[in-house]
Amino acid sequence: MTKPKRYRWKVVGIFFAFMLLHQTDKLLIGPLKGPISEEFGISNTQFGLIVSGALIVSTVLYPIWGYLYDRYARSKLLALASFIWGATTWLSAIVRTYIPFVATRASTGIDDSSYPGLYSLIADYFEPDKRSKVYGVLQLSQPIGYLIGMVLALMLAPVIGWRTVFYITGALGIVLSITIYFGVKEMPRGKSEPEFEGMDEIGQFNFSWEATKDVFKKKTMWFVLLQGFAGVFPWNVITYFFFDYLAKERGYDEMSVLLTMAPIVLILAGGYFVGGALGDWLFKRTLKGRVIVSSIGVLMGAIFLFFAMNTPIESRTAFFVFMAIAALFMPFSSPNVVSTVYDVTVPEVRSTAQSVEYFVENGGAALAPLLAGIIADASSMHNAILTISLIAWGLSFLFYTGTMFFIDGDISSLRNQMAKRAADEKARQAT
Fold it and tell me: In this predicted structure, what is the pLDDT of residue 2?
């Protein structure tokens, strides 16, 4: 089954819209921390529990979604995930007390486990040396979604109420579920692997537990999993506490927050594409290329976040410059990690492998907001953000360094495996 190249970019466009609006809905809770906390009369720790609940649910469900994506049509399951997103967001807007709100916000984590199926389907549309750029484009949606959520929280929520904003984003999830169901076609697993280039029929690669076990015997995956656990701590702390930190500890009013964060988030968005493009460029020259770019990203992000957070409160220009530089480097690793997982994984278990990686990541993500809330209540949001971020990114840099010792061998092993499959399929078709 051959798809025109234009069609695959249509699929990217649909998935970008899905991720953009889904991230807006998911990350909206951060900018709305103030009014939600005021309505329910809750502390930083209690707010951290709201965020952690959804992360825990998505963590538990990652392996299940990954297995389903590798067994069944990914496009249809993604449509289902979009519908669940809309329905659970509506539920969280309906409830009126704190405990039910914690429960309904936790239910929004059900669909947060959907991205491994999306990424593995994209991997079957695009060749290995183009994937990081495409993932970088898709992941632009995350910071832009946060920016949209920030605008909605500052400009729309005070007028129509934060619950009505959730009704709107939930409705968009249901609309997108219909778009994905009818607009995205499934692609044979492994179709874009270079060894199958020019072959109309590539055979059917079916999920197996043996292939899954083989993935996690590769040492590259060990370090990817360790990095994943540590690397998400800063993201979740910054996402859910930085907005409130600017307002309460640096004295920014709502307009100052918007004027400061909007350009920083746009620079952050550009960092996904720049990191992905650099990863693909260096990958063509060395198999370590994506890991090198990722390690530079976490190191430079940590350095410039440290400078920004320790800038005097009155030095707003210096704070902005340091945060902007940190924002450019922070997302470098994200598109490259996804590509690295697929660089060492056979096509029929890629969703499962990515899901396990996200399962481990969310183990860190689920702890981060609650830990940050505890530190913030005991000390300050400044200390919570900076301490957690520097420790986590320092560990990530060490884990990326470890990955470089094994990545060449693991990628070569997969390419040899794909070459053997291609040769076997050609022999079968010739008989």
Answer: 46
- pLDDT, one tens digit per residue, over 281-316 is 999 999 999 999 999 999 999 999 999 999 999 999
11: confidence class by pLDDT, cuts 50, 70, 90 = very high
Residue 296, amino acid? I
Residue ranges of the domains in the chain? Answer: 5-188+207-420
HSE-up (13 A, CA, CB side) for residue 274: 14
Yes or no: say if 78 and 184 are a contact pair by the CB < 8 Å rule: yes
Question: Tens of pLDDT along 34-75?
Answer: 888 888 888 888 887 888 788 788 888 888 999 999 998 999
Q: What is the CA radius of gyration of the chain?
A: 21
Tokens at 19, concatenated: 């991720």
In terms of Cα–Cα distance, which of 173, 154, 171 is closest to 33? Answer: 154
What separation, in Å, do the N-terminal and C-terminal C-alpha atoms of the chain show?
21
Q: Tell me which of 3.10.20.310, 3.40.630.30, 1.20.1250.20, 3.30.70.20 is the CATH number of domain 5-188+207-420.
A: 1.20.1250.20
Residue by residue, DSSP assigns 138-185 as HHTHHHHHHHHHHHIIIIIHHHH-HHHHHHHHHHHHHHHHHHHHHH--
C-alpha–C-alpha distance, residues 422 and 431, integer Å: 15
User: Looking at the predicted structure, is the pLDDT value of residue 236 above 80?
Assistant: no
In angstroms, the CA 379 to CA 373 distance is 10
Cβ 425 vs Cβ 201: under 8 Å: yes
Close Cβ partners of 341 (under 8 Å, ≥ 6 residues apart): 221, 224, 350, 353, 354, 357
Largest separation between any pair of C-alpha atoms in the chain:
77
User: What's the one-letter identity of residue 117?
Assistant: G
pTM: 0.81
Q: Residue 234: name the closest of 310, 303, 131, 160 by CA.
A: 303
DSSP-based three-state secondary structure for 54:
helix
Cα 246 to its chain centre, rounded Å, is: 24
**pLDDT tens-digit series, residues 307-346:** 999 999 999 999 999 999 999 999 999 999 999 999 999 9
Cα–Cα distance for residue pair 173/211, rounded to 1 Å: 34
Torsion on CA atoms 281, 284, 285, 291, rounded to nearest 10 = 70
182-206 pLDDT per residue, tens: 999 998 888 888 888 777 666 677 7
